[in-house]
Amino acid sequence: MQKKRSLRDVDPKGRRVLVRCDFNVPLKDGAITDETRIVKSLPTIRHILDGGGSAILTSHLGRPQGGPDPAFSLQPVAESLSGHLGSDVALIADPLGDGAVAAAGALAPGRALLLENVRFLDGETKNASHVGEGLARLGDLFVNDAFGSSHRAHASVVGVADHLEAVCGFLVEKELDVFGKILSDPRRPFVAILGGAKVSDKILVIENLLERVDTLILGGGMAYTFLAGRGESVGASKLEADRVDYARGLLEKAETRGVRVLLPTDHVVADRFADDAERRESTTIPDGWMALDIGPESRAAFAAEVASAGTVLWNGPMGVFEMAPFAAGTRAVSEACGRSSATTVIGGGDSAAAVNAFGLADQMTHISTGGGASLELLEGKTLPGLAALADA
Description:
The chain is of the alpha/beta class. The protein contains 13 helices and 17 strands. It has helices at residues 36-50, 75-85, 98-106, 129-136, 170-184, 203-209, 223-229, 244-257, 296-307, 328-339, 349-357, 371-378, 384-387, and strands at 16-20, 27-28, 31-32, 54-58, 90-92, 112-115, 141-144, 166-168, 190-194, 215-218, 260-262, 267-270, 279-282, 290-294, 311-315, 343-346, 366-367. The mean pLDDT is 95.
């Protein structure tokens, strides 16, 4: 993985630094319910401000359709940033207007402003040249600190870098360091745990990881396509019938490469998809019943594998963890990762949500800030937002 120039390699003093952040925070009734993404951006922002630069911050929020929508305004983020930075962070309504140019030009060293949601701009998601050029007018250095958006070739991520010196911020730098290390030189044994609903979402990840890992643990809904590939009956469980042969082929490839594959040997089965369904633990899945979590035997086996690992990469839950009766498998993997002396890397998305929900986040080595972006890195892809940055 190519190393990139970072904010450490440039002097922000006297510069207007345009920073693409990931402020795509959850909102309820106009209030932020989780500030994690804002807090994780602060080291980069403070480094610029403390170093005598000014910061023009930009981000998207949600998926507004067809222009400005008050429900997706970054105003709550501006208020949060003002509190964290101890000075007023103004929100600029039109990032491409002359008012934005004037505000950026008048911004004193050590101060920050925030541009309104870039997805209000026509052409942002299509990387329209006028958006990249318009944003670039506001600064003389571009910092990408939005790892979670770096797999998208959008104007505020990629287009701006055509017009300004472009480096990565500290958050993106850390993600690249962590994933670069585990994919090129992991402590062994290297154990990857993949879950989630669908095999098709993880095919390229599995293909890439089979070249690198010692053990592959498969859980969640996707495991039942693999079990069907082994000829086991999966009842009414989640099944991608068109992927069964492919799953069987992946298992054969793993065996050829000497990669151990662990699949669930027992299950929490239910008579319907509901948290008040009739359920039981079973080594078989009766007709008409569906497996919604891994059983106690599988939990113990997966945890034992994690305990003896040197590196653990986890992406995807072991069951329908949003429903309390089917959360035990995902909790068991979370706790095993927390106890392990291994380097534990959580690949964003539902896995990150799980370790946060179980209060175990501080026991992990690294929790990625980008579910989709980390998946594409694990697939071996080059992310457009990273390709646009200067190489180290």
